[in-house]
Amino acid sequence: MKRRDFIKYSAVGLGVAGLYGPNAFAAGQNRRRVVVVGGGFGGATAARYIKLIDPSIDVVLIEKNDQFVSCPISNWVVVGMKKMGDISFGYQGLAKRGIQVIQDEIVGIDAAAGYVQGKKGKVEYDRLIVSPGIDFRYDLIEGFNDEAKKIFPHAYKAGPQTVQLQQQLQALQPGGTVLMTVPDNAYRCPPGPYERASLIAEYLQKNKQGSKLIILDPHQKIASKGKLFKAAWDAYYTDIIDYRPEEIIASVDVDKKTISTYEEEFEADVINFIPDQKAGKLAFDLGLVPEKKLWAPVQPLTLESTLVPGVHVIGDATDSLTSGPMPKSGFVASSMGKVAAAAVVAELSGKKAPLPSFANTCYSMVNSTEAIFVTGVYKYDSASGKNIKIPEASKTSPGRSDYYGRCAEDWATSIWSDMLS
Fold first, then answer.
1. Of 27, 50, 63, 45, the residue nearest 282 (C-alpha)
2. Is 2 exposed, middle or buried (0-12, 13-18, 19+ CB in 10 A)?
3. Measured between alpha carbons, how far is 364 from 408 in angstroms, rounded to an integer?
4. pLDDT value at 224 more than 90
5. pLDDT over 90 for what percent of the chain?
6. Does residue 54 sit in the same domain as residue 97?
7. Segments forming the whole domain that contains residue 348
8. Do 25 and 120 have their domain in common?
9. Tens digits of per-residue pLDDT, 174-185?
10. For the whole prediction, is pTM greater than 0.85?
11. Do residues 216 and 249 both lie within one domain?
């Protein structure tokens, strides 16, 4: 947000100071305050780990929703393997640790004065961590209006659309057609669409005999864990999945319920449209994304914004050209949260930030019991000044198995506890 635009929000904070409580606005003279905006995998982890590393720091977590809803495992909800309640959690665990949790939506920042502006008020900070998540590029598709958003759910931000897609699948008549699209790079959770396709295919196989699943993918081949997904599809879903690579979506027609590429029109009973993506709106509103760019550039050592001093950006919204060759995943966001937490605590203590290292683990179900996985380890390379992947510490599962399926659930339970308890 440009300085001149910020003026219009100033009166909002002054008029509702009491909404946050008397201690939420001005930082104490002898205390240090870190504000974290966004309570997802990155933000919640950062808040918790700052408090773990240095309990003397005041930590304020600002999140617009009253609950965290996990995108990983939400594909399981779509096909009835889990319920929304299984992937939805409050922030009571963080509050018990002494972290002040505020439900509000941030609309501006004054980095020079050191405060963020919410719809309910403003909060001062010594350092700020922002985890904006992702948003969707609907403007690329002709005909994608507000009505299209309602009837072609992306279900790629876990929440109401997850339930909507589940209900659409339940209402599908046997012999019907489901169509889903895969976004082009870069996007959140590279294997996510293919896991969803696998689970929907199994759901159709078990519950909607004679139904088909069409997958329109702009990539030349499956973009993540390709050989493993293809092996599972060849083993289980050859009569269900119609996979179409190198398909670029040109337009949609709400009335006809069709999706058109530049070569063909597709009609389906259920359309799961996952658009191309960019950094979340908050990143743009706070001036963290350069003009005509899609992602927020950061310093690889500390994840501090290259555009706004004192503000660290973590999670899916970061520009991988600067943060490193890591996928946009929940595990990476959590890893970034820990790196940012360590960097912020060090900087507030007048010390050098430790050299960062990052990790990623991602399980994908190929049916209701079997999973595949990929892992990655990344570290800061002093010679190049970049975060790089460590090939010998990164691997893909040799195949699919029920054991990996059980590991997938254990992974989710563990990371939820790590970020929220």
1. 63
2. exposed
3. 7
4. yes
5. 92
6. yes
7. 3-135+278-354
8. yes
9. 999 999 999 999
10. yes
11. yes
Q: Which of 330, 354, 378 is the last residue of a domain?
A: 354
Distance CA(300)–CA(405), nearest Å, equals 34
Name the token pair of 257.
């319920």
Q: Determine the residue type at 29.
A: Q
CATH number for position 106: 3.50.50.60
Which phi and psi angles does 341 have, rounded to 5°? Answer: -60, -45
